[in-house]
Amino acid sequence: EDQVTQSPEALRLQEGESSSLNCSYTVSGLRGLFWYRQDPGKGPEFLFTLYSAGEEKEKERLKATLTKKESFLHITAPKPEDSATYLCAVRVYSSASKIIFGSGTRLSIRP
Amino acid sequence: DGGITQSPKYLFRKEGQNVTLSCEQNLNHDAMYWYRQDPGQGLRLIYYSQIVNDFQKGDIAEGYSVSREKKESFPLTVTSAQKNPTAFYLCASSGQGDPQPQHFGDGTRLSIL
Question: What is the pLDDT of residues A58-105, one digit of tens each?
Fold first, then answer.
């Protein structure tokens, strides 16, 4: 069964303290992996798409990387405004339209 | 600006009542989706539609119904058969080509009176 697992469930950091969020996946065939940011009471906001192992994407303090089994979202010198839930999702070859979402990592940055 | 509009933001349902959540997009996307989000859980797919007048059940379609009469609109009805409807409902759309990311509205929070 296709599965996406995110860890940790919650992460509290001090402002400026860099860290990484993990998304591990067990799927029959990966078409693409997506990262989203979700603020409380809002819909997810698209951040990155990664297609193949070894690929990296960057946006401001965020960098996403992909291996054959997992993806990392690295956050460098975070600020309080980076506090949000970060969701990982994968599209698999076995389903043309379905995306499988992880349950997210709640990131909190203390000033 | 192009985007997805969900309404209302908050909705309350009485026992035995059907309620309809609105989702409109002006992104000219062919595919539209409805998800349910519960605390501590990932998004679960209710229904999706890849083209007008066609839609498919997702993982948790029981107690829900949809229609897709126009490209830009994909309303979701939560029927009285859905016994645990309290949740945050999200509508999304995606364009052609694969894999395309889904773009989301800001959700409707449904509660039971």
Answer: 999 999 999 999 999 999 999 999 999 999 999 987 666 678 999 999
Instruction: Give burial (CB, 10 Å; 0-12/13-18/19+) of A23.
Output: buried
**Which chain A residues in 54-83 lie under 8 Å from chain B, judged by CB atoms?**
none
Chain A, residues 27-46, CB within 8 A of chain B, namely 31-32, 34, 36, 41-46
pLDDT digits (tens, 9 = 90+) for B14-40: 888 999 999 999 999 999 999 999 987
Residue from A33, A103, A106 whose CB has the most chain B CBs within 10 Å, to mutate: A103
